[in-house]
Amino acid sequence: PSIFHSPFTQTTFMFKHHILISYRSALRNKSTFLINLIGLSTGLATALLIFLWVQDEWIIDKIPQGQKAIYQVMQNLNSNSGEIYTSSNQSTLLAPSLKAEIPEIAYVTPLRTLSLATYLSIEDQSIKAQGAFAGKNFFKVFPYRLIEGNKQNILTDPSSIVLSIDLAEKIFGSSKAALNQTLKVNHNEVSGDFMVSGVFNPTSIKASEEFEFFLSHDYFLSTMEADQMHWANFPSEVYLTFRQKSIDLPTFNRKIEDFSRDKFLALGNSEENLDWVGKLFIRDFSHKYLYNRYENGTQAGGRIEYVKSFVLIGIFILFMACINFMNLSTAQSGRRAKEMGVKKVVGAQRKTLIAQHFFESLFNSLLALLLSFIWVVAVLPGVNDLTDKNLSMGLGYPLFFSSLALILATGLLAGSYPALYLSKIKPLVVLKGSNPHSIRELWTRKGLVIFQFVLALLFIGSVYVMHNQFKLITTKNLGYEREHVILFERQGQLMDSTDLETFVRESRKIPGVNFASIIGGNPVDMEGATGGYEVKGEKGTVKLSNESFGYDGLKTLGIELKEGRDFSRAYSNEENKVILNETAVKLFELKKSLGKRITVWGDEWEVIGVVYDFHFQPLYEQIKPLVFFFEPDDTEQIIVNLSPKNLRNTLKQMESLHSNYNSGYPFEYEFLDQSYNDLYQSESRTYTLYTYFSAISLLISCLGLWGLAAYTAERREKEMGVRKVLGAKFKDLILLLSKDFTQMVLWAIVMATPLGYLIAQKWLENFAYRIPLHAGYFVLAGVSVLLLTWLTVSLHTVRAARTNPVESLKRE
Description:
The structure is a single chain. By secondary structure, this protein is an alpha+beta fold. Helices cover about 50% and strands about 20% of the residues. A hairpin with a 2-residue loop joins strand 14 and strand 15 (about 300).
């Protein structure tokens, strides 16, 4: 007998008993079980997808465990508006000076990313790759694993190049075969033959910037003019490591804060020009991706805000699914309460009953989790396309423990209220048929439903706001043409200025080409800026954004002149001329612009034109002062304005002309409107994800409403019969049954509107140009949800209202 009463035997028996009870409960309440299963699996699938996305985001730019921390040197510069602008670019003089004068630093390396993709050629083979100029200590700072080459001298030779293993295998067949081979590099910043001095594996860090090759930073320095190498010119980034494992960041930042400014003054520069040089500080390299936004010199978030918001969304959606479980369980508490009462009478303890409810909840959660895995596997390819990631359901420890945590959290949360509530009801009260807690239970259920709808309304209202903001972005007149305008890189033979000018001339002869020109960078986001501009006889020095243009650049982009002219072949010495925008004219306080001469670093240019302000940066930014230079040699892109008629034929002729000048180089172009839309890719993906989350939240809410409506209609069936006998009309019964659900949605609208307004206002603050915000977006969301609520409950209410009173009254 002692064997049959052992703890193990009792536990096994209770486990089997709980499984049997859970199975019978599911069969007895099929609709409730299916609603809970679908709702929980949807919530769990959403949470798992968000976990996979967050996990992938979290490891970007993270240094492998055991490696020394890497820090990036940043600087805060004063802008024309009086605000502080934070930049990661530094002077080429900074890296060697820091290493020489700061003893705590172990290694320091500059890094300059090549702004355009580069072609690497060997014999007749050309491969497009992304690279950068790196200092000789780059591989001592960054823990990329060198497969071939010596870390001590790998980038000391200016004519050396280091390839990624994938690129080495693609070009030479293997990493060993690549070593000491010669490659021809073609880029506007670098051109010539380089010897492969090493091969590295880039997978040791999941970096936000991925490079396929590195050239020596010393080569880049050799291409710079002597007057460009000063403390107020910032072409490169700087990274460093310390000798010790930990560093007191605030103390070190105070130590280097005025490092560049002191060097600048020591060369005899005036304190009036000190704003040209920034105050330095360092940040952890692992913060580069997630904490990439600064406001007025202070760290103000970045992509970490998306990570946090999606974590909250996952929790909320999962919580909504748990609410359905709790609501439907408490709604059926009358049936289960009698079961609990009988069990208590025959000797069951409260802890046993609590265990039974939690077991049922965990059992349902486990089934929902298994179903959610199927959901995730089915939708993961689409999620990867949407998020531009390569997420997978690899069965590793993080996923296993996360799934286990989700099961426990979901099961305990979903089963908490019914387990703790039903297990404490007194048997005598229940078996008599009364329930003293019915009012409290009703209000609890209503409160949970209202909370569900508040979340759903916040999602839907946010989607409405995002939709209208993106409509503004895509339809706003930017002040230049982006329809039927293509952009492609200078490469190969077009790096020669004579061939480039001939190519542009020949392009304009093609039928369907309106204008063609050259430009320094992409016109949708002109990032170049420098300081030290002066206008003789006018206001003092200021900072201006700047861009290089060729002939007819303004005509090609459709930028409207306010006064003056464009750069033209009809005039000589255009290299000494500039064009300003309206904001620059206002900043200089010019009464008469044309003919004025501006100077910077000793060089002088004449103002020949003023353009109306246009948006040359994303709409997050106010329009800044801008100056156009005529500098064909500093341009990187060719821009062509096309007629929409016979567009395909025009592009074929452009491709043919391009191949005549660049045999072996593909004609790879992009339309300017697509390039513009890519600026808001992150927000566009967020908008799409919010749309899906809204649909999921509505699905879960409606599933809960469906179950509650079915229960309410069943519970009030006799009441409806009595009311019909007494003469109640059909529409009165419909209104009576729908009233509670309508009130809950109206309460949700009242609560969600101010909260949603504040959230939307915070998001819109990211845009300098934004839609006017009003509560109507959330009221519209509320009306949409209200209509969907009526549709969801209508089937049950209509059926209950149409039930024959004789049938409903004779049931006991």
